[in-house]
Amino acid sequence: MTAAEILKIRDARPAGPPPRPASQPLRVERRVSCRGALVIAGQRIHVGIAHAGATLTVEAADTTFRIHDGDQLLTEVPRTTVKDVARFKVRKPEPPRAEQG
């Protein structure tokens, strides 16, 4: 495009700086299922039934997920998905459903 054509573009403005990658790994919370697994970025990770119902912290790096219970590292697993992390906070458990009878 020529300079004259660029000036004719409506609401044009210069681009901002490119996004920078995070200097630290992304930290999110996940609640462990009743079977001892959690899901992050579409990847199911089994941490053990002893942690069922617990809220754990997950560090999502480029190639690994690190699962922490407080300050203790439980496991580090390789990342097998390329999806982005969609949820950052853990959801509260659903209330018990009333039985219909």
SSE layout:
Layout: H1 3-8, E1 26-31, E2 37-40, E3 43-46, E4 55-60, E5 64-69, E6 72-78
Antiparallel strand pairs: 1-4, 2-3, 4-5, 5-6
Overview of this protein structure:
The protein has 101 residues and is mainly beta. It has a domain at 24-89. The protein is 6% helix and 33% strand. The chain has one helix and six strands; from the N terminus they run H-E-E-E-E-E-E. The chain has one helix at residues 3-8, and strands at residues 26-31, 37-40, 43-46, 55-60, 64-69, 72-78. The strands form two sheets. It has a four-stranded antiparallel β-sheet, with no helix packed on it. A two-stranded antiparallel ribbon has the order 2-3. A hairpin with a 3-residue loop joins strand 4 and strand 5. The longest helix has 6 residues, at 3-8. It is elongated and about 70 Å long. It starts with a helix and ends in a 23-residue tail after the last strand. The mean pLDDT is 86.
Give the helices and strands as they follow along the chain: HEEEEEE
Helix content: under 10%
Q: Could you give the distance between the termini?
A: 71 Å
Secondary structure category: mainly beta
Portion in beta strands: 25-35%
Q: Give the averaged pLDDT, no decimals.
A: 86
Largest sheet: 4 strands, antiparallel
Number of strands: 6
Query: Compute the gyration radius: what is it?
Result: 21 Å
From the spread of the alpha carbons, the general shape counts as elongated
Low-confidence stretches: none
Number of helices: 1
How are strands sequenced across the largest beta sheet? 1-4-5-6
